[in-house]
Design brief:
Its cofactor is pyridoxal 5'-phosphate. Pfam families: Aminotran_5 (PF00266). The protein is of the alpha/beta class. It has helices at 6-11, 38-51, 61-80, 95-110, 129-138, 155-160, 184-194, 213-216, 241-246, 281-297, 299-318, 345-354, 367-373, 389-406, and strands at 19-20, 23-24, 26-27, 89-92, 116-120, 141-145, 166-172, 197-201, 220-224, 235-239, 257-259, 266-267, 323-326, 335-340, 357-358, 360-362, 378-382. A 7-stranded mixed beta sheet has the order 4-10-9-8-7-5-6, sandwiched between helices. A 4-stranded antiparallel beta sheet has the order 13-14-17-16, covered by helices on one side. It has a two-stranded antiparallel ribbon with strand order 1-2. It is globular. The N and C termini lie far apart (47 Å). The protein binds 4'-deoxy-4'-aminopyridoxal-5'-phosphate. Residues 94-96, 124, 126-127, 172, 176, 201, 203-204, 224, 226, 365 line the site of 4'-deoxy-4'-aminopyridoxal-5'-phosphate.
Length: 407
């Protein structure tokens, strides 16, 4: 195996070279959105310079090229997550759209008063609010499985809550706040035994680990492209074919029909049935380049580097008096939420920014999780494989400075 040359990797990410407030940028907000390698930026740029046209509408050369690259991205993503067929992948604007599609197209038609959707306390609002909206329309309820103090899902409770009135189970693969990796395979196995479909929010897993939807055994897997080196406004819903065949379309318009008549319209087969209107063609060209980038580095190397950084950053943070880390699961991706006693998260993030350190402060779109811990907000440092130990050191130095200022 080759040595992980982080400096060579960093050189592929133009933005990492910039400074902020006169200080070298230390970008530790990767769970929010990742930076993009030059190959992704170039792919988008080249698409607009040389191939731009709409998809599936024109027989001219450019139209064919645009269709080929767009559909090629679907193929690439399908292979990347080991889907059994490219037709199981609906390209969306991100996880939010993917989950809403399942909410309105899968869940809503089958929800009766008294039914329930199961989610968890650690979810992003994108895996809570769509369920509340369809529950309100149908008289169903949303139940949330609990977590423990370490930030691990209490799996026995989750399984206990998979009662017959549950029509869909949901769980995040990786928590965007705690970094916790959930035992998706085990949950999927139990859901299957009970005949309940399982939706997994893969937003925070895809940037860090190889995902194999067949091995996971879930029914739906939601993906967002901008956290995995791709452009904003890209993502996907992977779903088992049987579900896609049965689901009615959610958005109507061009591209998703077979024949339109005022006496009745027929729809295209999946995945096109769910892709009304002109998609983010250039974005998906970029996402395909992002997948190429991951494959060129390899998740084995990425995982080893990130886990090493996570352990180092966690140890260094633990040296700081009064610092509390939220989320100490046995299996974590490199996300660390924390607070320092007596200091407001937003004040700290603002002062860290002046030192060139980009971290996120706030509720991270996870109000129920903040309520569980009894805090309004946390600071979150989230790492990527292009981060370095030196950056962690700079972060710790800045944090100590900020702590002094605020104490
Ligand atoms: N789920 C999780 C776990 C996330 O971290 C995010 C993004 N913060 C989302 C869903 C929503 O993703 P997007 O805004 O790209 O649709």
């Amino acid at each position: 195996p080759t040595v992980f040359d982080v400096q060579r990797i960093r050189a592929d990410f133009p933005l990492l070279a910039r400074s902020v407030h006169g200080k070298p940028l230390v970008y530790l907000d990767n769970a929010n959105t990742s930076q993009k390698p030059a190959s992704v930026i170039e792919a988008v740029n080249t698409h607009y310079r040389e191939h731009n046209a709409n998809v599936s509408r024109a027989v001219h050369q450019l139209g064919e090229e645009a269709t080929a690259v767009y559909e090629g991205s679907r193929d690439k993503l399908a292979r990347f997550i080991n889907a059994t067929s490219r037709n199981e992948l609906i390209l969306t604007s991100g996880t939010t759209q993917a989950i809403n599609l399942v909410a309105y197209s899968y869940a809503l038609p089958r929800l009766q008063p008294g039914d329930a959707i199961l989610t968890t306390v650690m979810e992003h609002h994108a895996n809570i609010v769509p369920w509340q909206l369809v529950a309100a329309r149908s008289g169903a309820t949303v139940k949330a499985a609990p977590i423990d103090e370490r930030g691990e899902l209490i799996v026995e409770k989750y399984l206990e809550m998979l009662t017959p009135e549950v029509k869909l189970a949901c769980v995040t693969h990786v928590s965007n706040v705690l970094g916790t990796v959930n035992p998706v395979r085990e949950i999927a196995r139990e859901c299957k035994k009970r005949g309940i479909a399982l939706l997994v929010d893969g937003s925070q897993a895809m940037p860090h680990r190889p995902v194999d939807v067949q091995a996971l055994g879930c029914d739906f897997y939601a993906i967002t492209g901008h956290k995995m080196l791709g452009p904003t406004g890209t993502g996907a819903l992977w779903a088992k074919r049987e579900h896609l065949e049965a689901m009615p379309p959610f958005f109507g318009g061009g591209e998703m029909i077979r024949e339109v008549r005022f006496s009745g319209t027929t729809f295209a087969a999946p995945p096109h049935k769910f892709e009304a209107g002109t998609p983010n063609i250039a974005g998906f060209v970029g996402l395909a380049a992002a997948i190429d980038y991951y494959e060129s580095v390899g998740f084995e190397a990425i995982h080893a580097w990130e886990q090493n950084l996570l352990a180092y950053a966690t140890d260094r943070l633990r040296e700081i008096p009064g610092l509390r880390i939220f989320g100490e699961a046995k299996e974590k991706e490199p996300v660390i939420s924390f607070l320092i006693e007596g200091a407001q998260a937003t004040d700290m993030a603002t002062l860290l920014d002046l030192q060139g350190i980009a971290v996120r402060s706030g509720h991270h779109c996870a109000h129920p999780l903040m309520q569980f811990y009894g805090v309004p907000a946390t600071l979150r440092a989230s790492l990527a494989f292009y981060n370095t130990r030196e950056e962690i050191d700079a972060f710790i130095v800045a944090l100590l400075k900020v702590r002094k200022l605020l104490m």
